Amino acid sequence: MNNWxxxxxxxxLLLTLLVIFIAACAGRSRTIGTxxxxxxxxxxxxxxxxxxxxTYQGSAVKVLSYNEVLLLTGTASTEIARLKxxxxxxxxxxxxxxxNEITVSRKPSFFSALSDKxxxxxxxIGLLAEASIKSSKIKIVCSGGTVYLMGIVNDREKELVxxxxxxxxxxxxxxxxxxxxxxxx
Length: 185
What we know:
The chain is of the alpha/beta class. Helices cover 49% and strands 23% of the residues. It is built from six helices and seven strands, in the order H-H-H-E-E-H-E-E-H-E-E-H-E.
């Protein structure tokens, strides 16, 4: 093995250990194994999309896995590309469910993508400001002013989170991809 390969493997190992440590400290509702599996699913889905550039040219897809549920958002250049992304990602092992929220339209401009990042930050700050919400349990993806929310929450938390997000200026739509848990956990 050359020096670069050793450094790359060491970097991967350290990154994995850091992720495990952060997950344990954050008090997530997922097991460490599920957390690692979600990271693997996300990376595999991104790899599938990035290696098939000819088919997905002009597409801007965001990928997020939470508790082995895959969320696909963003844009595809054609309906064929949108369906091919779904067909390719469905083959990834360990995915329990896929939410394909990809729309067919032009790739967003730099400013539109920046606007989505700004909106995600505003939503995250709004959730952090609400003391009764454990915002570390909520994953946020913004695409075209639509806010997608993932996590494992009870009914009260779902309503509270959705209400806070809807009140955030710039939010056009809120789509929840929450999984339910009992009130006690």
